[in-house]
Amino acid sequence: MDSLDTSIEKSSSIISRFSNEQLIRLGLNKDTxxxxxxxxxxxxxxxxxxxxxxxxxxxxxxxxxxxxxxxDIRFFAYLLESRFPHFLALIAPxxxxxxxxPIIFDEFPKWINPLDTxxxxxxxxxxxxxxxxxxxxxxxxxxxxxxxxxxxMESYIQVVRIVFLxxxxxxxxxxxxGQSLLAFxxxxxxxxxxxxxxxxxxIMGFVASIQVTTNDMVRIGDWITMxxxxxxxxxxxxxxxxxxxxNFDKTITTIPTYTLISDSxxxxxxxxxxxxxxxxxxxxIKQSSIRFVxxxxxxxxxxxxxxxxxxxxxxxxxNKHNEHIGADRSILxxxxxxxxxxxxxxxxxxxxxxxxxxxxxMTLLVRQLAPNENGLPLELYVFTNTTDWNQxxxxxxxxxxxxxxxxxxxxxxxxxxxxxxxxxxVHFTNTLxxxxxxxxKDL
Length: 443
Known about the structure:
Blueprint: H1 2-25, H2 30-71, H3 74-81, H4 84-91, H5 94-104, H6 112-143, H7 153-177, H8 181-190, H9 192-198, H10 200-215, E1 223-226, E2 231-238, E3 242-247, E4 252-256, H11 259-262, E5 266-267, H12 269-274, E6 278-285, H13 298-302, H14 308-325, H15 340-353, E7 365-368, E8 376-383, H16 389-406, H17 420-430, H18 434-442
Antiparallel strand pairs: 1-2, 1-5, 2-3, 3-4, 6-8, 7-8
Helix pairs in contact: 1-2, 1-5, 2-3, 2-4, 2-5, 3-6, 4-6, 5-6, 6-7
């Protein structure tokens, strides 16, 4: 090895001196000739480096493409996407650069060792880039498999990158100082408190990524809601420090990764996987419009499809009960009676139970809520047979369009706050003579 190095040094010295002498013969002084010589040799080496790198990259790309097309192994395609041939080809001219440094700077020997050190540092970064391209290709291969779909692979890639960079820093430290890696890690151990402070978010994010993956809390593509951070949309990316969420208004919200385990959030994946989306909405009935139904009114309500059988069956039960207790039916309050709101509630149950877009195997509930200052809420708690947003909104609107229109058939009123025009109309009507009031009502 020593004899080889010596022969290289001799040949480099001969080449440099030959080109330098030719420049002096052209009439340049010694100093100018030395500078021009360095400049020309640098241009020559840079050209050779680009040529070698280009040839090697083309050859490697062709080889990997051929291997992928013949074997159909996606890993080789991902290697191409991660620019593995490019980074590997950058190492090819390394020996050329190392051997060219003594030739180019033969007249400037003080520059040889620093530049040689820079070349070694460059080699460290190239090796890290090659390893990272392999890791990224492997991660993409895993992500393509169903069991790894939606996993936060980016977090683990970033952890591997940090480890490689840390080892690279140690190697560069050894190259510059000439000390072993043990000395570097000893120094880093002494500065561990500072390192923990610097990488606090990364460490917390890494721990959060592990817990999120282990507990299957969030996947790429999940719809999550986190009002504290203004997030309401699909998860685009989970990396070591942040989670990117594309909101439905097309804005992007970034959330610290560790908040996925420190704060609460809502994940809609369960709804999407179940195949049904919940409708939970109320119709508020004006309480003063709720009344008993007289016996002579029942034939009119029996004409409403859906509650005929209920009125017949329930009517028999009511009559038997009233006869049993001897209720005085001259007053509706005595005994048990139908109410227009009860009939309407039964009609709503029948309607949603027979609606083709409502899931029958999930919760299907029509219930009264506690009365409030606005009226008596009648709430629908059902699930649609689709999770598509457009279809969901259409189904919900279709159901409530019908139910709101059906209220008047049961002599009920829906609570609605009066607007200024309503108040003006009432005041205007009250100031008119009786005949004109009747004509206004007809209008």
